[in-house]
Design goal:
Elements (H helix, E strand, L loop, with lengths): L11 E5 L2 H4 L22 H5 L22 H15 L3 E5 L2 H4 L10 H16 L3 E7 L5 H7 L6 H16 L6 E5 L9 H5 L9 H26 L4 E8 L2 E3 L4 H23 L4 H10 L7 H9 L4 E6 L3 E3 L8 E2 L6 E2 L5 E2 L5 E2 L1 H15 L3 E5 L17 H19 L5 E7 L19 E3 L11 E3 L1 H11 L6
Parallel strand pairs: 1-2, 1-14, 2-3, 3-4, 4-5, 5-7, 6-8, 7-13, 13-14
Antiparallel strand pairs: 9-10, 11-12, 15-16
The structure holds 6-O-phosphono-beta-D-glucopyranose.
6-O-phosphono-beta-D-glucopyranose binds next to loops.
């Protein structure tokens, strides 16, 4: 067996989940309805998460997987014990906004919701697991969408600020690592899921999306400010759906196209990490007639409250072409790109590119020189358990091994600063993109299918013991 150089001392190994994809209990203990609850499985899911089809409540003919999900809400002790058995140093999870403020605009929080997360954090600490908390992972209370139009409305900043202040105060000493918005660039591609945006006919959708993005960026800076004021030890990060664009050919037009598409994503991090709107965005808005309402105090707030670290999800690289004749697309994390003929792909058509992770790490490091955290990476695959629930998921081990090697190279050979790695869906959960259960990422198998049948029993896959060894040897035995 090859022995690899170790990862830095105190490297935070772990796994990641999101509230709506694992908690279930959507109406328990005062929780309010959220956008993430009303997105069904099936062909209408994408138009709904993209804000093109309206679904503001449950409809009888659909199945809504987040309602019950894997019932982490009632089984968190068992799940955290399994994470601890793998040796997790950190556990990335998210807060369901509507558990804390069921409608979103109340003045007082819901104690039952606060109490739930306090218990979860204390359970983590019992095992020496450091929580890494996403404040909003795609969720927005439905009341804020119906009454205020979601993040298009500037008042959302005030409601989000109240949420953050409540969390930072209540969980002072329990949580140190915070992420403000999951995959903030998804607002451009899945605006209902990312920001509670539903578009009326004839609206300038780009204008609405960038205005909402401005509100999220201001809210993120405000959260960073408050987090530091309440507890100087707090570390606040942004979160990007990352994956470098490669030009399809060396033709300068393709290179230019890939640079432009990269900027579309880095735009958000440019603001959160550097503290100001990049010139290329201001020029583009001017050319497209996009007029963003920015209050003078916003710019100072952005400038003075940049993030402490940059976190991102990485599943694949992307390819850009300026040639309209190049049409073959690959599936991908919400937004598709041109197919890369040099790469293999998952059962869902996501292309597999471990070196792309090293390239992405280096690019982000070169651009910002801020510490990084990979908070999502993994393989969504169909697992076939034996009668005991055991899955021999060598394909998942292979995927993760190659990506961990790429991280190792980026750290030990290239010198990037990386704080940690949390694999996506460390326990099987509902897919955000498709709503399926059968698209599994976990080290832990959960007995539940796409229609919601199953005992919800947890069992260890082969990758469970493998990851345990990776953590125990600090990445030197893969
Ligand atoms: C990211 C999200 O987009 O990718 C997660 O932050 C999501 O919520 C993950 O689950 C994997 O995507 P999918 O569509 O396979 O669940």
């Amino acid at each position: 067996m090859t022995i690899y150089p170790e990862f830095p001392k105190n490297f935070l190994w772990g796994g990641a989940t999101a509230a709506n994809q694992c908690e279930g209990a959507y109406d328990v203990d005062g929780r309010g309805l959220a956008n993430v609850d009303v997105v069904p499985i099936g062909k209408d899911r994408f138009p709904i998460i993209a804000g093109q089809k309206k679904m503001f409540d449950f409809e009888d003919s659909y199945f809504y997987p987040a309602k019950e999900s894997i019932d982490f809400y009632h089984r968190y002790k068992e799940d955290i014990a399994l994470f601890a058995e793998m040796g997790f140093k950190t556990y990335r999870m998210s807060i369901a906004w509507s558990r804390i403020f069921p409608k979103g605009d109340e003045l007082e929080p819901n104690e039952a919701g606060l109490d739930f997360y306090e218990k979860v954090f204390k359970e983590c600490h019992r095992y020496g697991i450091e929580p890494l908390v996403t404040i909003t992972h795609f969720d927005c209370p439905m009341h804020l969408i119906k009454e205020y139009g979601g993040w298009r409305n500037r008042q959302l900043i005030t409601f989000y600020e109240r949420l953050c202040r409540t969390l930072f105060t209540r969980y002072k000493g329990l949580v140190k690592y915070w992420l403000t918005f999951n995959e903030i660039n998804m607002i451009l591609h899945a605006p209902f899921m990312g920001a509670g945006l539903y578009f009326e006919d004839g609206e300038n959708q780009e204008q609405v999306k960038y205005q909402a993005a401005h509100h999220e960026l201001v809210a993120s800076a405000l959260a960073t400010k408050i987090a530091h004021e309440i507890e100087p030890e707090n570390k606040v990060g942004c979160m990007l759906a990352a994956g470098q664009y490669y030009p399809n050919t060396p033709h300068p037009d393709d290179v230019w196209e890939s640079l432009k598409l990269d900027r579309e994503n880095y735009f958000f991090i440019d603001v959160q990490a550097r503290g100001e709107y990049p010139n290329y965005a201001k020029k583009e808005w001017e050319q497209k007639g996009i007029d963003i309402n920015i209050e003078p105090k916003d710019l100072l707030l952005l400038k003075e409250n940049t993030v402490d670290f940059i976190s991102f999800s990485y599943y694949s690289s992307r390819v850009a072409s300026a040639d309209p004749a190049v049409k073959e697309k690959t599936a991908g994390n919400i937004f598709a790109s041109i197919k890369n003929p040099y790469l293999t792909e998952s059962e869902w058509g996501w292309q597999i590119d471990p070196l792309g992770l090293r390239i992405t790490l280096n690019t982000i490091w070169d651009r910002y020189q801020k510490p990084m955290f990979i908070v999502e990476n993994g393989l969504g695959a169909v697992d076939t358990p034996d009668e005991t629930g055991y899955v021999a998921d060598d394909y998942r081990i292979d995927y993760l091994r190659e990506h961990i090697k790429a991280m190792n190279d980026a750290i030990n050979q290239d010198g990037v600063e990386l704080w940690g790695y949390t694999t996506w869906g460390c326990i099987d959960l509902v897919s955000a993109g498709t709503g399926e259960m059968k698209k599994r990422y976990g080290f832990i198998y959960v007995d539940r299918d796409n229609e919601g049948n199953g005992s919800l029993k947890r069992s260890k896959k082969k990758s469970f013991d493998w990851y345990k060894q990776v953590i125990a040897t600090n990445g030197s035995m893969l």
